[in-house]
Inverse folding.
């Protein structure tokens, strides 16, 4: 059995559809219920839904052999896993955003609110800008509106959260997408099965990019 951690939510649905099309179907996963673990002995897979930011923890510790995690999470937490494939799903950008009328003139320490403190710190260290980092856990867009921070570092997908809160992208830091990751010892001991999944998913990605 290959244990596969999928990110719960909209991205996870797309990821599962890709695994299914690649030959790793598990029909019971489509049943509407509160179950979190699904397996199909015929295709040799056991899927489980976990919080997207927890996927890499399951994979790093070997509770899952493989999983799908956002590049944002991999950069922020640097789990000791192998990154095998860019699935090309869940595409978005990590960006600095702020109020339309805010301009960083560099005269004082910049207050940055974010969930991604490591990514934000590395970015500002790279450009030699002093910052005061404010760690939040969600609804980051509120911080500059209430004067808690000058800017935010956050994920922008459609841009509608920013627009609806009168914020705009100031700088794009990184493109983000979903990645297939593997536990290091599973990669050794279940290498053939994992390789087969990688090849089957790669064919799906190629097919999608040719349509
Ligand atoms: C993410 C992100 C932004 C929003 C961006 O939030 O933090 O708030 O999505 O998407 P958009 O550009 O399409 O509007 P999420 O829904 O994960 O909730 P959060 O507030 O917990 O971060």
């Amino acid at each position: 059995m290959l244990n596969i951690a999928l990110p719960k939510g909209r991205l996870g649905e797309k990821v599962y559809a890709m695994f299914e099309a690649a030959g790793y179907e598990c029909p019971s996963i489509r049943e509407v219920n509160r179950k979190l673990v699904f397996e199909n002995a015929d295709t040799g897979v056991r899927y489980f839904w976990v919080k997207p930011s927890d996927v890499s923890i399951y994979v790093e510790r070997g509770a899952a052999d493989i999983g799908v995690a956002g590049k944002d999470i991999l950069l922020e937490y640097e789990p000791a896993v192998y990154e095998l494939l860019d699935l090309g799903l869940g595409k978005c950008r990590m960006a600095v955003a702020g109020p339309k009328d805010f301009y960083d003139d560099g005269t004082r320490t910049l207050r940055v609110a974010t969930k991604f403190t490591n990514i934000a710190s590395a970015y500002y260290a790279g450009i030699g800008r002093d910052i005061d980092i404010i760690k939040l856990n969600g609804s980051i867009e509120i911080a500059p509106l209430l004067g808690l921070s000058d800017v935010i570092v956050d994920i922008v997908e459609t841009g509608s959260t920013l627009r609806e809160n009168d914020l705009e992208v100031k700088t794009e830091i990184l493109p983000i997408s979903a990645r297939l990751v593997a536990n290091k010892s599973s990669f050794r001991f279940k290498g053939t099965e994992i390789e087969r999944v990688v090849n089957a998913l790669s064919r799906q990605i190629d097919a999608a990019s040719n349509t």
User: Anything to note?
Assistant: The longest strand covers residues 167-176. Residues 138-141, 154-161 surround PRP (CB under 6 Å). The radius of gyration is 19 Å. The chain has eight helices and eleven strands.
